[in-house]
Amino acid sequence: MLTQAFLANRRGVELSLEERQLLESAIAEVRNVEPRQTLIPPRSSIAVSTLLLDGIVSRFIDDHQGLRQLVAIHVPGEFVDLHAYPMLELDHGIATLTAARVAIVPHAALRRILDPRPDLTRKLWFSTLIDAALHRTWLFRVGRLDAVGRVAHFLCEMNLRLQAIGLSDGQTYALALTQADIAEICGLTTVHTNRVLRQLREAGLCHVHASLVEILDSPGLARRGNFDPHYLYLNVPASGNGTNAIDLA
Predict the structure, then answer these.
(1) Is the pTM of this model over 0.85?
(2) How far apart are CA 14 and CA 218, in angstroms?
(3) Angle CA(62)–CA(65)–CA(71) in degrees, nearest 5?
(4) Are 134 and 231 in contact (CB under 8 A)?
(5) Are the beta carbons of 9 and 235 closer than 8 angstroms?
(6) In terms of residue numbers, what domain contains 34?
(7) How many other CB atoms are there within 10 angstroms of residue 65's CB atom?
(8) d(CA 217, CA 200)
(9) Residue 67: pLDDT band by 50, 70, 90 thresholds?
(10) Could you report the per-residue pLDDT of 143-180, keeping only the tens digit for each?
(11) Which CATH number goes with the domain that contains 82?
């Protein structure tokens, strides 16, 4: 089922089988997209919304010199532009960071299944409110944390978001982002990010090697990043050994 990961393990919200089947029926096509491709340019008129099935996708804003700031990233199971359903356009761009597979949902099909079903509408609204909570926390991260805290916070967040969809065991996960990507996410230079990752490794908190993140001390990493997972609205069980995963139940 293509929508299986959508709103998976979200606290207080669960889609019924019928609701998932309705969302499936609204999908017009599935596309494979290469890495580093713009899916939606800023201020484009949009008549569809996109559900990410595989890969990592970013929201971005470019300045007048073409320098890019990543303002959010999405993992599988998330709508990347559901905001465009009522707004008809986005004030930012959407681009793939890795190879991705996406499901295209025309707004006309969304309207058909949502208008007579206020409960399903509320659940999709909940999805966009999670995006808003993520945006607020990203502002906090860049505005209030030092460089090491920013990266530690981001790695904690990704661990839980991926754990919720079965792509992290609570301790180790694949993160196919470059150090330049992490630098843009955390408002740092690539050189500074490399230094921060070394500091986290030397402190025994986590080890990032190529595209693999291994959390060595989950409570310690969370403390260093001032990480409070409440904003994710997740219900993620502890991993098998119970020592590195954060239990949000």
Answers:
(1) yes
(2) 28
(3) 20
(4) yes
(5) yes
(6) 17-137
(7) 5
(8) 10
(9) confident
(10) 999 999 999 999 999 999 999 999 999 999 999 999 99
(11) 2.60.120.10
